[in-house]
Amino acid sequence: MFLASDKASSAACHDGFALHLMEAAGDAVFRLDSKGKIIRASRRSGELLHFSILLDGRDFTDLVPLGDRAAVLDALSVAAGSEKPVRMVSRVHSAQSAFRWFEWQFSAWQADDATEILAVGRDVSIQHDTEERLRHMATHDALTGLPNRALLSDRIKMAIAQSRRAHGGFAIVALDLDGFKKVNDALGHGVGDDLLRIAAKRLREALRDIDTLARVGGDEFVAVLPGVIDEPEILLIARRLISAIQLPFEMEGHALYVSTSIGAAVYPEHGDDEVKLLAHADSAMYRAKELGKARCVIYSKQKFDRVEHDVSMEAAMFEAIRNGEFLLHYQPIVDARTRTIVGFEALMRWTQPELGLVSPAQFIPMAEENGLINLLGGWALKAACMQMKKFQEAAGRKLYVSVNVSPRQFRNDQFLKAMDEALVLSGLGGEQLLLEITEGILMSDPEHAERLLTEIASRKVRIAIDDFGTGYSSLAYLKRFPIHALKIDRAFIKDLPLSVKDAAICNVVMSLANHLKLSTIAEGVENENQMQFLVEQGCALIQGFHTGGPVLPELATELLKSKTPVVASPALV
Length: 573
Ligand code: C2E
Ligand code: MG
Ligand code: MG
Fold this sequence. Notes:
Layout: H1 6-12, H2 16-24, E1 28-33, E2 38-41, H3 43-48, H4 66-80, E3 86-93, E4 99-111, E5 114-123, H5 125-139, H6 149-166, E6 170-178, H7 180-187, H8 189-205, E7 212-217, E8 220-226, H9 231-246, E9 249-251, E10 254-256, E11 259-267, H10 274-290, E12 296-298, H11 306-322, E13 326-335, E14 341-352, E15 356-358, H12 360-370, H13 373-395, E16 400-404, H14 407-411, H15 415-426, E17 433-437, H16 439-444, H17 446-458, E18 462-468, H18 477-480, E19 485-488, H19 490-493, H20 500-515, E20 519-522, H21 528-536, E21 541-542, H22 553-561
Parallel strand pairs: 11-12, 14-16, 16-17, 17-18, 18-19, 19-20, 20-21
Antiparallel strand pairs: 1-2, 1-5, 3-4, 4-5, 6-8, 6-11, 7-8, 9-10, 13-14, 13-21, 14-15
Helix pairs in contact: 5-20, 7-8, 13-15, 13-22
The structure holds ligand C2E and magnesium ion (2 copies).
């Protein structure tokens, strides 16, 4: 990536060839004396920084904003006394914008009788901004800009730590909009989204700056109120929140009315950890709904007994596994260019006798919590591999199946055994199975992940990172672990191709994948415009309602047998 190795550059800089090299490089190249004064800057340096002034003779740190100077000086002095190059990222003044981000490599070399430093810099502003945006997206809700569940969890942990130190407390308030679903169904998602944005703004304005307001679900919000522990104070704040939502929402010429039901729980009285506090605030909120909505209920140990509820749910799930109420739907994964099916993602469903189809978003977290996910996940692996064998026979060609693996399953020491059994039982080759895991799984215990992934790779089973970009922490793991594909999350696909920022993110993700020789699968592709954009960007595989939603195996078999592409390319229409 960089211009030349240290030894080569140090020798080469002595002659005209070095000058030529400096000028030919696509990166910014500076020759510095040991104090950091610029002896010579390549022409490209001036271009990259959009400076027309002569840089030769200036201090190198003049290029860097004040806040970054100490770190750059530090790196230069380490480099001057070391044989190894020193790398760092810093901001750099730019005549065009406030500043840009540069990745530097400083390497020392001996010129005649003095030590000089060769500084090679690459503009990484786009990657940097993208990473910042990914980080923001990972912690904020895209619709309202409010903190999301992940950031809420951090804030609650912080509030607990502060309360412990100060022997104080805080309140957690769970809010749900009453009547929102009706607005959404009757007037469409566009109006629903606008209403949520306005509601979020009103709730935010009714709270203090030190309070956190997060959006944790469709029309569900949670607020953390540091220092608020007394019942009258909680009720006062709740009344403010209820009034803010009760004002009419003027939309498309209609005045819409919704209300909010509120449940509250107090630390430490009602729970000493995040899970208990949220669960208690939630059950208080449901009680508020039962009591007639548009009111606030504060949790009380005597009146609420949630533990019993959890136990009965666990029993119901266990019973459901025995009764065969779980099944798998299969969603086509389509080659972006040929538009033919190359595989399926297996997605679990629960058909409850009274409720009908229950979404995995509802029961997977519960199964993860009560441990039944190991049983369910093991079943899904086997069922998916067996079904894939049948799909292949029907299609007369090789296909692959993608199976989701949850964190608790991945940590379970029986996982490998379950996977091996699924492969043996079905007779499917390892290369026809792809496991979908999330970034969080890798980061929580990297040593375990490395061991398990190596075992998995030795069976030729491939790994994809699901919902890529939403659990972002560091990209370093992509180099460390044997990973084969990135599934770009629907959040980045949704507003394509109009959203410039999402387009930039998809672009960077695909060039990153390309660079690391990973395949990319775009999730949640819902229309031809998105598909066209992704094909042009070099995305290999497409999954979404546009090329087919999750269906029962019988229908999936029909799709496979059909000779025509799943959706026609506009070029063919
Ligand atoms: P996921 O793995 O990211 O799966 C993609 C989800 O997006 C699926 O939701 C799918 O139905 C939905 N989807 C696909 N195309 C589109 C589209 O074009 N537009 C929109 N709006 N949605 C689309 P589903 O089936 O409800 O599954 C939700 C999540 O539940 C999955 O997300 C996965 O994390 C989890 N899950 C599903 N089955 C299993 C399983 O067998 N084991 C485990 N551990 N988790 C599972
Ligand atoms: Mg998935
Ligand atoms: Mg996904």
